[in-house]
Design brief:
about 55% helix, mainly alpha, 11 helices
Length: about 210
Amino acid sequence: MTATERAPIIFERLRARYPKTVPALDHHNAWELLVATVLAAQCTDARVNMVTPKLFARWPGPAELALASQEDLEEVVRSTGFFRNKAKNLIGAAKRVMDAFGGQVPRTLAELVTLPGVARKTANIVLSNSFGVNEGIAVDTHVTRLAYRLALTDSDDPVKIERDLMPLFPQDQWGEINHLLVYFGRDICDARKPKCPECELSDICPKRGVGKK
């Protein structure tokens, strides 16, 4: 079975398992999702969700965060890891949103990736979930792992993986396939101990890398 043949089966089965998909990061608008996604790098969504209420209470939007001191923001986001770089990028992103985009989160990938700390993954997550725009597929660690195990890509580079995945799924599924693979990666297709006997995809999965150290 080729990747082209396998992809729609994967989508259909995972969608049956997860009929409703939403981001795991708590947010109320595009700016909050952008900030939360930046903080989620090398950090759990659960930890980020513990940090963002205090952050948004103190700095509700880009206008407020653009005026924050880096030291103050670092203290709030410290527990998410890499806090100095994250604080610097978030303040820089807030300033650019205010100066270049009139205080509104931009709605194109090309514009979003000009914000400090925002690469394609974060941009795709914001576009899909906040604006219903699918310009690409967000590739995180779960998507990277499952795409390789399911032989949808031969690469471990997120940009190349995204390029491989996009032709396999209709564009209106690009946002949802990210959620489906992330959910499934957390629940079943674990990095170290995948639950293959419980997997709906076991009969079509090449299981690449499973059982290897």
